[in-house]
């Protein structure tokens, strides 16, 4: 139990080093006069101290800088704002903080170039290194990254950092998040990524990576998010990916994967909630795997070259589905009535396929989804007049959509508590046609 009233103070070397960092990031603010006292007791938001020697009855202990966050994010996170002129910034100064665990920069390096390599001098106790929206940050991940053995979180997004991922990356055995999106990285994803057994997030989106996904990726058993979108990855999907039993978000969209179809082994990844594969020429039909993926809430399958029908199982099993994109494919046949069972669906895109027949949705369903319902670009698809009128109220761009003229296509009728469809009959103006149509209705209802 602490009985002393003494409070530990930050040592003068670290106090002065904080002032130097603040001045180099924004010299327009008088940091020393605004925060003249001990920075551990009255410092700016983003400067965080922690005990490195715990207090006792006779000793107040010692405190050191453990977190430094720069760049105003919001009123909730009002970190010290960075200025336009950061030419005096020198990352070497961070070697003055031997207990620094987190280093965060948001929108700080926007004009004067700063090298990423200079941050390798930060002591190995660093657990989080975060750069978000710093377009003047350049350089590459060097082998020295492997010296940061305590690193749990590495985030570099929206920078000009380039080059390949070095072999030393596989030495970061404590890494839980690697978000390297929106940079200029190139090369392949190395096999030694499999050494990162604690990894939960791997986001390499919006770079220039290429080649195949290594089979070793299936060894990342704790991975929750895998985002490789907007790169140049090619080939197929390795079957070893079924080993990603904890994966919830999978985004492989807009790469160069081809001719592999939608893998059946996805059904073994039972925790999947988000599947985005759009923009790859996969081909094939939509597989019947949805009964084993009932937790999925978003599916993006746009522009895959898909053929065949839309399976009704999408509506039967995916009660949590909020987003379904099947546009710009080669899908044929009728739109399944079961899709209307998706009560939380907020966006449905079926544009630019070869779907036909009557759109089996009620006006209520159409109104609920509103402008996020896309069915244009299917010339043989028609809408009931009431649905057509509901649609025109929310979207006047109907393209080639037309009102159905029964019995030129399916006509949905109530039979008991379910809906069924009358068979398709060619349009005719003859009396024989009208008689045969009435006879067909009679036989349908009573036999």
Automatic annotation (TrEMBL):
Signal peptide: none annotated. This is Leucine-rich repeat-containing N-terminal plant-type domain-containing protein. InterPro entries: Leu-rich_rpt (IPR001611), LRR_dom_sf (IPR032675), StomDev_PlantInt_Reg (IPR052941). Coiled coil: none annotated. The lineage of its organism: Eukaryota, Viridiplantae, Streptophyta, Embryophyta, Tracheophyta. Keywords: Cell membrane, Glycoprotein, Leucine-rich repeat, Membrane, Repeat, Signal. It comes from Mikania micrantha (bitter vine). It is found in: Cell membrane. GO terms for cellular component: plasma membrane.
